[in-house]
Amino acid sequence: DSGVLNFYYSTNGNGHAGAKTVGSVSNGTWYHFAASRTGNTLETYLAGTRGASIDVTGISLYDAGGLVEIGGYHTAGFDLNGHLACVRVTKGVGRYTGASIISPTLPMPTS
Fold first, then answer.
1. Tell me: the pLDDT tens digits for 49-84?
2. What residue ranges in the chain does DSSP mark as E strands?
3. Which burial class, exposed, middle or buried, applies to 9 when counting CB atoms under 10 A from its CB (0-12, 13-18, 19+)?
4. Which one-letter DSSP state was computed for residue 65?
5. Beta-carbon neighbour count of residue 29 at 10 Å?
6. Which end of the chain is less crowded, N or C, counting CB atoms within 10 A of the terminal residue's CB?
7. Are 47 and 96 within 8 A, CB to CB?
8. Helix (H, G, I), strand (E, B), or coil: what is residue 9?
9. What is the pTM of this model?
10. Would you give the end-to-end CA distance of the chain in angstroms?
11. Which residues are within 8 A (CB) of 27 and not within 5 positions of it... i.e. 6 or more apart?
């Protein structure tokens, strides 16, 4: 959907699971997005507000041993029409939890 930010993940490499609408976005506007797993809960945040809280008890994300797609789901034609900056992936540490988080309000400086 145009203007809607969704979060997808795969548990088996054949399609996606847990597709959750995180929130609406507008062209020409910068947003902070985060997805964080702490224990058995996967939470998504857009501009500091939790968009989804998913129970992932007993679920492992699929390890393809290859590329990770960020910004699109190429086999379904859901590609990001925009830019990504300052992507951070951390294994073993849930960075965010709770109903809201303190998120940056502006993109990181380029100089």
1. 888 888 989 988 888 776 677 777 666 667 777 778
2. 4-9, 17-24, 33-38, 41-46, 49-55, 72-73, 78-79
3. middle
4. S
5. 8
6. C
7. no
8. strand
9. 0.78
10. 34
11. 3, 82
